[in-house]
């Protein structure tokens, strides 16, 4: 992992654990045992760092949805793959933890543009697959997207809480991830699909 990537990982976990507003550049530098000036060698500001974290996630999400869209499988299976990814919290997917905590902490306004980019990507996926959506729902794509996005975030936060670990730093984040890995995500995906998606799919 490069120094730049290390800064992004550490900052992401601290942003999620303590809030974006409450996390200072000094906090990030101290965890990394580097001088504050060392941070500025890589990023001009906390805002630039946050935007890069968000942009990286948008790119990854776009690539994933394109891959899913190109697969020769049913629309139902594609949706289940998307739900599975949104609930697959692992050590290398710390951005997912950040997005959930931004929602929980009421800090969405700080990243609104980047959130909209992510939601636009999913909206486009749904629009491209309108033929699989029941007629009465075809003009409700944005509403469907909002319901699914919010519901998945709430479910993810619920599952994180089930681990019983309060994340304050990277060590506790790893502990939470270890306990999260014992959860039956496939069961959660099936439940979510049956509750929120099955009724609108042809």
Provide a descriptive summary of the structure in words.
It is a single chain. The chain has one domain. Helix content is 70%, strand content 0%. The radius of gyration is 18 Å and the shape is globular. The model has no long low-confidence stretch (mean pLDDT 92). With 202 residues, the protein is mainly α. Helix 1 (3-18) packs across helix 2 and helix 5 packs across helix 10. It contains ten helices and no strands.
Morphology call? globular
Overall average pLDDT:
92
Q: Level of helix content?
A: over 70%
Determine the N-to-C terminus distance: 45 Å
Number of helices: 10
- Helix and strand composition category: mainly alpha
Q: What would you report as the Rg, rounded to the nearest angstrom?
A: 18 Å
> What is the H/E order?
HHHHHHHHHH
Portion in beta strands: under 5%
Tell me the number of strands. Answer: 0
Poorly predicted runs are none
Characterize the main sheet: none
The tally of structural domains comes to 1
InterPro entries: Homeodomain-like_sf (IPR009057), HTH-type_Tx_Regulator (IPR050624), HTH_TetR (IPR001647)
Protein name: Helix-turn-helix domain-containing protein
Pfam family, one: TetR_N
Transmembrane segments: 144-161
């Amino acid at each position: 992992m490069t120094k730049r990537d290390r800064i992004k990982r550490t900052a992401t976990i601290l942003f999620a654990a303590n809030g974006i507003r409450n996390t200072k550049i000094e906090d990030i530098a101290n965890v990394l045992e580097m001088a504050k000036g060392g941070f500025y060698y890589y990023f001009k500001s906390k805002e630039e760092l946050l935007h890069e974290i968000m942009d990286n996630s948008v790119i990854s999400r776009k690539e994933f949805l394109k891959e899913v869209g190109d697969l020769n499988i049913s629309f139902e299976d594609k949706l289940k793959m998307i739900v599975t990814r949104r609930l697959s919290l692992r050590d290398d997917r710390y951005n997912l933890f950040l997005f959930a905590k931004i929602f929980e902490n009421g800090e969405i306004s700080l990243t609104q543009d980047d959130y909209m980019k992510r939601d636009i990507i999913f909206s486009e996926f749904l629009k491209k697959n309108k033929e699989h959506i029941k007629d009465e729902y075809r003009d409700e794509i944005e509403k469907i997207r909002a319901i699914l996005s919010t519901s998945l975030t709430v479910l993810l936060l619920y599952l994180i809480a089930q681990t019983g670990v309060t994340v304050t730093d990277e060590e506790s984040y790893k502990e939470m991830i270890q306990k999260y890995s014992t959860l039956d995500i496939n069961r959660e995906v099936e439940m979510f699909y049956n509750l929120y998606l099955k009724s609108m799919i042809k």
